[in-house]
Design brief:
Elements (H helix, E strand, L loop, with lengths): L1 H22 L3 H8 L10 H4 L3 H37 L4 H31 L3 H11 L10
Length: 147
């Protein structure tokens, strides 16, 4: 009986730990955030040699989804706290699993929004800028500034 409880607790801790790890900003979200023209000294945006029109379009892309991203991020944080409380409390396994699945759905929705932003930004870049953008996203540029 004790072994069963310990194994359930260990499984819950692993599940909760992976939930926290997944909540960290994704590489794509970091890139979208880094698109902010007001970032420190322009950061790697200067490396892309963007036109003022491109900068304006990037700002517009970010602004269109800013509220949605913030709301999903808040819902994820709140859900993780609720999951923590469920795991620590007396909730049924089904209720804990349901909360875990709800959090994963929110994370997927957030990731999808961030990916759509990345695609929208990609569309306004020329081929050379796209290459630099991709290199930066996947850390292939040794001279890239890390935010």
């Amino acid at each position: 009986m004790l072994i069963r409880r310990v194994s359930i607790l260990a499984a819950a801790m692993i599940a909760f730990g992976s939930t926290i790890a997944l909540a960290k900003p994704t590489l794509i979200s970091q890139q979208v955030i880094a698109q902010n023209p007001r970032a420190k000294s322009g950061g790697w945006l200067k490396d892309l040699n963007l036109t003022s029109q491109q900068l304006q379009q990037i700002k517009q892309i970010r602004n269109q989804s800013k509220q949605q991203i913030a709301q999903k991020s808040q819902e994820i944080r709140q859900g993780q706290q609720e999951l923590h409380d469920l795991i620590a409390g007396t909730a049924t396994k089904e209720r804990v699993r349901s909360k875990y699945n709800q959090i994963n759905l929110l994370k997927q929705q957030l990731s999808d929004t961030q990916f759509e932003n990345t695609l929208a930004i990609r569309e306004i870049l020329n081929p050379e800028q796209r290459q630099k953008f991709a290199d930066r996203m996947y850390n292939k540029n040794p001279h890239a500034q890390h935010n």
